Amino acid sequence: MDAFILQILNGLDKGSAYALIALGLTLIFGTLGVVNFAHGALFMIGAFCAVFLQRILSLSFLTVDETRTDFLGNPMKVETPYVVDWFGPELGNAIIDWSVPLAILFAIPVMVFVGFVMERGLIKHFYKRPHADQILVTFGLAIVLQEIIKYFYGANPIPTPAPRALAGAFDIGTVIGFDANTIIYPYWRMIYFAFSLIIIGGVFGFLRYTTFGMVVRAGMADRETVGMLGIDIDRRFTLMFGIAAAVAGLAGVMYTPINPPNYHMGMDFLVLSFVVVVVGGMGSLPGAVLAGFLLGILESFASTSWATSALPGINQIIIYLVAIIVLLTRPRGLMGRKGVMEE
Fold first, then answer.
1. Is 108 within the bounds of a domain?
2. Neighbouring residues of 50: CB distance < 8 A, sequence distance ≥ 6
3. Rounded to two decimals, what is the model's pTM?
4. Based on the number of CB atoms within 10 Å of its own CB, is 69 exposed (0-12), middle (13-18) or buried (19 or more)?
């Protein structure tokens, strides 16, 4: 039972990333009808927003510490971060330590701006083009963004730790009646899961309970009729593209302590996220979220030793096997609208 619970937790952890990226993909497809193969790059850019902010906060200058000497007896030169000099040792070091959570505030305007530029500068010209053209141009854009990140940050993963206060693990087993040290899970992974639920709930609440969201949902159902009412639906859809980019970027920011950012991490998640969208149903927001968590849990169980010993490599292909089965039996996905991808 403890192993079962641990695999569920691992699956929810993976599923959180899948669900957040797939949610943004589905927002773009549902509003604009665009298959955006650059969405994984937005996840990557969000992760490097955290890296960038951490490096900015860690900028330092050399000072002479008279209380310390080197092996020759000379006063030692030490590096002092500017934020420590400005705000004092306690607050300054705390700001550096909490750079990843602080990167959320930094990433939101950056990602909205990136999404706006991407949509206005390139993608708007492909609204009425075939999906194959959309895939080619957005995939090319993803490669360009990936190479830009590689040029500035190199090819190696960049460790971006969580705050020290959240770097440990929580003994979940004692809470649910197991012996101590039976089920131990990292704090940050639990925070990432909770964070994903907040973002998902925020997006659904925004679409359901705000006037802007209701107009967007109406435009998703019948764009021409909404436009005939004098509503600038194109401007709202552009803002939704920015929101979708912010969702992907925030997913990347919070994922950095789990998996050190590297220039190809967007591509690693992109294919899996598209599989999640297809399984959940193209254009279905609840389907994207549900499929993200279900496939994350399934992948977690497929990675166990008993599964890989019985079927070697099953952990690498299980998601694709599920996608094949769903496409053969229900082409529109688990919660897709009737007629979508069924022609």
1. yes
2. 99, 100, 103, 107, 160, 252, 253, 256, 261
3. 0.87
4. exposed
Q: How far is CA 256 from CA 13, 47, 93, 161, in A?
A: 13, 6, 20, 7
- Tell me how far CA of residue 243 lies from CA of 20, 111, 116, 207, 209, in angstroms: 12, 8, 9, 11, 16
- Kind and range of the H or E run holding 310: helix 305-310
Q: Domain of 9: which CATH number?
A: 1.10.3470
- Segment 41-58 shows an average pLDDT of 93
Which residues constitute the domain of residue 28? 2-329
Could you report the per-residue pLDDT of 92-151, keeping only the tens digit for each? 999 999 999 999 999 999 999 999 999 888 888 887 788 888 888 988 999 999 999 999
Has residue 334 been placed in a domain? no
- CA pseudo-torsion sign 341, 226, 119, 273: negative
- Residues whose CB falls within 8 Å of the CB of residue 304, separated by 6 or more in sequence, listed in order: 3, 7
* Residue 342 included in any domain: no
Q: d(Cα 294, Cα 90) in Å, to the nearest integer?
A: 43
* Structural domain count, the chain: 1
- Decide if 191 is inside a domain: yes
